[in-house]
Amino acid sequence: QIWRPITATFFFPVGPGTGFLYLVNLYFLYQYSSRLETGAFDGRPADYMFMLLFNWICIVVSFCSSSNFQNILLLMIPLIMSVLYVWAQLNRDMIVSFWFGTRFKACYLPWVILGFNYIIGGSYV
């Protein structure tokens, strides 16, 4: 069943408890992906696509090595976190503002989002 990693990347179980988390993660994907496309990968869409593909392959390999290949359920949040992590590392010293006016350096943003996902969704993956 070779299609499982592909479908797990685009699948997110939207329900009463996860709808808000889904919308927030789509916002983060759009916001930081567009910042990468217009910043570090400006004029180089093939390089950006290669980065996404490489991140996806690393995520699939790490999930397959840690569990059974049949149990891959959800790869969307790890892929979003990888895009966010790349942006945060390229802009380490930039001050970002999270909800309710919390301000910190961009290098800590992936960890804040990881904690936020855990609080809202009950899972870090």
From TrEMBL:
Main subcellular location of this protein, as a coarse class: endoplasmic reticulum
Keyword flag Membrane: yes
Compartments, record wording: Endoplasmic reticulum membrane
GO cellular component: endoplasmic reticulum membrane
First and last residue of the signal peptide: none
Keywords: Endoplasmic reticulum, Membrane, Transmembrane, Transmembrane helix
Transmembrane segments: 7-28, 48-65, 72-88, 108-124
Membrane-related topology note: Multi-pass membrane protein
InterPro entries on file: DER1 (IPR007599)
One Pfam family per UniProt: DER1
Function recorded in the entry: Functional component of endoplasmic reticulum-associated degradation (ERAD) for misfolded lumenal proteins. May act by forming a channel that allows the retrotranslocation of misfolded proteins into the cytosol where they are ubiquitinated and degraded by the proteasome.
Family, per entry: Belongs to the derlin family.
Protein name: Derlin
UniProt source species: Scopus umbretta
Gene designation: Derl1
